[in-house]
Amino acid sequence: MKFRSRIVATLGAVLFLSACSATSQIEHFRPENAAEDQKLLFSPMIRHGETLYLSGMIGLKPGTTELPDSVEEQTRNVFAAIEKTLKLADADLSHLISCTVYLADMNNYTQMNEVYGSFFGSKPPTRTTVEVAALPLGAQIEISCLGYLNRNT
To answer: Of the candidates 63, 68, 78, 137, which lies 20 to 30 Å from 24 by C-alpha distance?
Structure first.
C-alpha cells in the first residue's frame, strides 16, 4: 500500500511540475519596426501563461520620438500603440482587464477620460489614474495594462 501511495504521489508531482513548466513559459513581444536606436531596456509586452503584461506607453507620433501637444492626441497615440502591441499576441483591446493611467497633470483628466472611453464599449477594463511629477520625454500621459489571452475561446 505504501508503494502504491508513493507511485501516485510521484505521478501527481510529475504532472503538477509539467503543468507548471508549461504555463511558466515567458514570451517577449516587440514590434518589428521598433526603432533600434531607442535601445529599449524593457519589453513592450510579455506573455506569461495566459496573462499579458504591457509596459507603460506614451503617445509618441508614429515613427518618431516627438509628442503631440494635446493630451487628447497623446491618448489616441497611446491606444494606437497598445492596439499594435496587443496584435502581436493575436489580442485586442477587449483582452485588457486592467489599465493604469499616469497623468502629468490631473487637470487633463476630463480630456483624457473622454478619449479613453471612446476605445471601450460597455465593458471597459478596471482602471487606476494617478498624477505623477513627470513622465518620459515630457509626455502628458502614460498607460500600462494587463490583459488575459484565453486561447480556448
So the answer is: 78
pLDDT of 66 reads 95
Taking the domains of the chain in order of start, what are their residue ranges?
Answer: 26-148
- The answer to whether the CB of 104 falls within 8 A of the CB of 139 is yes
Q: What is the pLDDT of residues 106-133, one digit of tens each?
A: 999 999 999 999 999 899 999 999 999 9
Architecture of domain 26-148: 2-Layer Sandwich (3.30)
Cβ contacts of 108-115, under 8 Å, gap ≥ 24: 108/71, 108/140, 108/141, 111/70, 111/71, 111/72, 111/75, 112/71, 112/72, 112/75, 112/141, 114/72, 115/72, 115/75, 115/76, 115/79
